[in-house]
Amino acid sequence: MPEPAPLAAPLAGLRVALFSGNYNYVRDGANQALNRLVGFLLRQGADVRTYSPVVENPAFEATGPMVNVPSVPIPGRSEYRFPLALSSAARADLAAFEPRVVHVASPDIVGHRAVSWARDRGVPVLASVHTRFETYPRYYNMAFMEPVIEAGLRRFYNRCDALVAPSESMVRVLKDQGMNDDVSLWTRGVDRTIFHPDKRDPAWRRSLGIADEEVVVGFLGRLVMEKGLDIFAATMKALRARGIAHRVLVIGEGPARGWFEDNLSGGIFVGHQSGADLGRAVASMDVLFNPSITETFGNVTLEVMACGLPVVAAAATGSESLVSDGVSGRLVEPGDVAGFADAIESYLANPALARAHGDAGAARAGEFGWDRINQAVADAYLRLIAQKT
């Protein structure tokens, strides 16, 4: 009797053109989420082609085929590149590929051109929102630019057929800002083989000069001012002024490292960590302090929760959807240095409270599996295609 024919891949025939301003040349939470999404789509039988700046020495190997778009370094932030145009070569490749859906991940020039290309051909467009771009100017003494940037984002996102955002709080913000009426959830996952309480390593802590009985306040993320480095430093200064014993562990790298080192007395900087080393470093903290308001989700918050540690965060998009205030951590009004210091002090002074809130966070993190999460994006693609036919 002949063997039954294999089942067709669930997404066979789906062709996705993904446009990203940074797919792999600098490692951050947004591009890692995009690469995971592409890997999932390819495993499900879809064809995906990513249009993004290509550099000689990217931060990590790209998932799936890439097509280069012209770009230049961003002044003052040369590690990032600004896509300049959808070149004739890229347009020819796009036409030959014949995508059934276009996915734009950054509201730059090439993103705009991709949306126009798709609209001219009746191809649906899904935009994913990865950061609060409109909040960046306030960290560079240019807060007056926020309304202008928000207006530009509103024009861009309303030209798309639908948006996906990584947290319920960000979905609400986008709808309230009038960015689009069709906004759904594409949250983020966490790898529990890397981020787990068992990854805590007292010997590694000792190698950094941290005694077993010392409590560690951690920072995790790129060292750029928009991550709230000024608030973090001011809060640690407030704890020292109160005589609250603690150590500070900084995991990450970035252009503001020099400023952070100068303004964070006694901080231990371990630089960029990845894979098992990152899991060990995160689990070896005692509490995470995340004062940033620019995240739309907060991958670092979820990773720390998966390690069974409490989180003190700004009550802002992303963290509000992950941290249950008074259950798995504390949410504090953005910029409230005294409030942040109070919340952190409560964990440093009460290990039992820290353990209870850490356990609650670990249970919450168990709900975030990558394949189930990425299926939501595939479902959005298929819905938009159906609406166009």
Automatic annotation (TrEMBL):
<protein>
    <submittedName>
        <fullName>Glycosyltransferase family 1 protein</fullName>
    </submittedName>
</protein>
<dbReference type="GO" id="GO:0016757">
    <property type="term" value="F:glycosyltransferase activity"/>
</dbReference>
<keyword id="KW-0808">Transferase</keyword>
<dbReference type="InterPro" id="IPR028098">
    <property type="entry name" value="Glyco_trans_4-like_N"/>
</dbReference>
<dbReference type="Pfam" id="PF13439">
    <property type="entry name" value="Glyco_transf_4"/>
</dbReference>
<feature type="domain" description="Glycosyltransferase subfamily 4-like N-terminal">
    <location>
        <begin position="28"/>
        <end position="191"/>
    </location>
</feature>
<dbReference type="Pfam" id="PF13692">
    <property type="entry name" value="Glyco_trans_1_4"/>
</dbReference>
<dbReference type="InterPro" id="IPR050194">
    <property type="entry name" value="Glycosyltransferase_grp1"/>
</dbReference>
